[in-house]
Known about the structure:
2 copies of one chain form a homodimer.
Chain A (H helix, E strand, L loop, with lengths): L12 H15 L11 H8 L3 H13 L3 E4 L3 E4 L29 E2 L12 H14 L1 H5 L8 H15 L8 E4 L2 H12 L5 E5 L3 H9 L4 E7 L2 E2 L1 H6 L4 E4 L13 H12 L5 E5 L15 H4 L5 E6 L11 E4 L2 H11 L8 H12 L2 H25 L7 E4 L6 E6 L5 H10 L2 E2 L1 E2 L14 E5 L8 H14 L1
Parallel strand pairs in A: 3-14, 5-6, 5-8, 8-9, 9-10
Antiparallel strand pairs in A: 1-2, 4-11, 6-7, 10-11, 12-13, 13-16, 15-16
Helix pairs in contact in A: 1-3, 2-3, 4-13, 6-13
Amino acid sequence: xxxxxxxxxxxxxxxxxxKCVKNDIxxxxxxxxxxxxxxxxxxxxxxxxxxxxQNAYDQLISEGYVYTLPKKGYYVSNIEGMANPAQTPLDVDxxxxxxxxxxxxxxxxxxxxxxxxFPFSVWTKISREVMTEKKEELMNVAPVCGVNELRxxxxxxxxxxxxxxxxxxxxxxxxxxxxxxxxxxxxxxxxKIYTIENPGYKKLxxxxxxxxxxCKYAAMDEQGVTGASxxxxxxxxxxxxxxxxxxxGITMPASRRYEILSWANAREGRYVIEDDYDSEFRTEGKPIxxxxxxxxxxxxxxxxxxSKSLSxxxxxxxxxxxxxxxxxxxxxxxxxxxxxxxxxxxxxxxxIMRGYFEKHINRMRLYYIRKRKRIIETIKQSILSDKCEIxxxxxxxxxxxxxxxxxxxxxxxxxxxxxxxxxxxxSDYYFEKNEEREHFFIINYSNIEAEEIGPxxxxxxxxxxxx
Amino acid sequence: xxxxxxxxxxxxxxxxxxKCVKNDIxxxxxxxxxxxxxxxxxxxxxxxxxxxxQNAYDQLISEGYVYTLPKKGYYVSNIEGMANPAQTPLDVDxxxxxxxxxxxxxxxxxxxxxxxxFPFSVWTKISREVMTEKKEELMNVAPVCGVNELRxxxxxxxxxxxxxxxxxxxxxxxxxxxxxxxxxxxxxxxxKIYTIENPGYKKLxxxxxxxxxxCKYAAMDEQGVTGASxxxxxxxxxxxxxxxxxxxGITMPASRRYEILSWANAREGRYVIEDDYDSEFRTEGKPIxxxxxxxxxxxxxxxxxxSKSLSxxxxxxxxxxxxxxxxxxxxxxxxxxxxxxxxxxxxxxxxIMRGYFEKHINRMRLYYIRKRKRIIETIKQSILSDKCEIxxxxxxxxxxxxxxxxxxxxxxxxxxxxxxxxxxxxSDYYFEKNEEREHFFIINYSNIEAEEIGPxxxxxxxxxxxx
Lengths: 467, 467
């Protein structure tokens, strides 16, 4: 039983008890895991009140020296090195497994960047300036759509890069496109039917399913999704990538765009979400105006991200809503907080307005064009050249390679996986098995080095000839 | 027709064409809106290939000098001031109104910070260091729960400040608590019934309504929500602030906490969301262990934010899930991306691990305690002192003042509003009219200066005696 001498104390009793127990814990007289006396017996033993012990214990708990187990009592924490808590082990490990990305030698499925492709020096400089010069602005809570400066900068960027004429107040900034999809489903309604392209971006289907929203798949032909296929699935909202479809690379021609708009206009409540995810890197193909630009009836929501043009780890995306929808958005949803930090919004705004973003994109575009050229040349000159066909529908950050093989795609993927190479087949992006579309593989080269292609081709060649 | 002299060129033909046309646009020889020759006729006219013209036009388009209309051709853009696009007006203004915060002279409802209360110098220093030393980590996509370093830092903070023993993998980081509520409803199900306290945080009800999720209100007594009131509304998930209720300031005593846990345990699928939004500033009252800490049956989701302790504009919140739920979370929802930028996650992690967060909190706590004391003294010494009663249930960042008046709360709010003072009444936080709870006003002093209290009291006095 703990007994202390209360005669020499120079502070309130509860504080004195707190100090005594704390000292005993720090000195090791009380060992980690040791049970402390109950409040009542501690109090009785020392001739003081239970409340006093309660206060002392509470203080010890709040500082981490003591923990409590429900219906059991008070115990001494493991305070080893607690003066510098960063060095103590946390002592809690429930063996919870976070699904981790596998590590590959070569990964054609990633969308990460190597650090040398991020404009660190300019970004650091601007972010320091922002923190020095915009202290007040940084502390002012932004409206739901994001800070004005960034929306203005994005409107200018859209004008000069995409020929889009947009009011900054039509732009909604959010922490990633996934988050923005959530806002869209809230804006248009959970009871609507959403449709994605087949083949298409499967993660979208997962998001819709997770939110218990009906999600269908619309068939594509060589020009993209058709009005008929959208009619066919009786959808309300069509999510499409008309400017550079993933994974096929198709650019939807103008006539098809008007067909899609005509579908949207045929009925009240129909909308198109135009995902323009890698627009900044599509300069070789013909630049076709966005669906948003040719939409005269407020049916198109334009969506883009800085994940491809800056880094996916920076978590800034935006959407442009038609005027009618943006009014509804502010009316119903302006109580939400913007999900992107002011610090990064102001930094990005300055980065765009001072012309650094344009320079960065130009540099990266050149870098990708060169890389792409080198990769394609390497394939053409390789041992694999007569066993494959390169399909370049457009520039952007990926193209397709069709392998002349009878092996099913899964076999090739698995064999490569064993050799620490990750590549995805076009067939993976179909929502049902489709044998006609086998043997196409997606060369997404944003995250690989041109030098890695040689060894990759040799490995593929080995896999194809082995069995 | 455009004709250029190709003899003196010092670059590839396409680049030369590009430069010539660009110069003509910049000089005004080619006017905005003017149609450019078709590729074929331009090429024939100058005796060069169509491809060359195509490349030149593409370059002009990508830089915004030229735009294209489908099936019509190429046109000169309006490039007025384009050398410095930031200075050109955007030319699009649809008169879309973004709901703006009103500006007040004194605002007791805000949760913003004055810039001098944000640790700018340390934050800037650490963020620069992070950008210099952690380039690779900054570019690696974080798992859905956030970067490991920050979750580890938060686990340590929770241990030392809240006596909570938490595995870092139980912590999910997100861009604001609103976003995390969305994850919770996806995790537990949209079909569940969610309940918030009455009085309580109305924004939560708006979020649930917006997502078409059933939201009910549970009555409180002087110890907080009761098990009976939760039974009464037949809810599945109870959202409560047991540690410092907003707006009443009630701290739920331990016995009531066990009652709530007992309610949760009585049926499968019941959960409690414990919102600990301003825990860092509640040191005067007795620190009662969190519901999460005394929950032995994995029924409590703990929720906290850096909005109060750092800034609401930084958009970092987190929740701690019980082991069973966090496993389900990773199983079903790990395809999501974390919504907080790596840059800020690493900066905050370092900020906590190096002890700056603790120092900052201590400094702010002292600042708030002093401010609170000064405000209360000012009230007590003021002309209003015998017309009001101060109700301090706990420390934290607000307390209540009961005015001795017969005026309805709305009248007082409106009269003050006219005088550019914003204050909220307790009755505003009830979901139905409750006359018994009239005349209590919330003095949330985080965003006001102690000196502003004098003029505020005089204004109130004037309002009370005027009519």
